[in-house]
Amino acid sequence: MERERPDYLPPIEKPRWSFPWLTAIGITVLVLAVFGVKQHLDTQAAWNKRFTKAPATQDATPTRAPIDLKAQARRDAEVAEARLRRVVEDREIEKERESWRCINHIPFRKIDGGWENVVGESC
Known about the structure:
By secondary structure, this protein is mostly helical. Helix content is 51%, strand content 11%.
């Protein structure tokens, strides 16, 4: 037996399921998942391409870049000159440090009219 709904109650509405929103969210999640899988596969392919070495063939001979002897000699001369400059500068610094005076492990250097504390140094 079917019961009758009283008149003072509002009519029962159809349950709303929000179908368009669920579809949009589902499609978004699916697109993001596909993008993540594609990114993973691309990364894996690049990794394999970079770090897996192809088997070496016996026909392949290693090729070397030609050496420019003049440029190499020029670089060697520049390096030697830089080393000489460094030695000269080190000697000058040592000469200057010899003129310093130490009081309680604090170095002082002579300036016009007195002595100056050398910051950041110790003796």
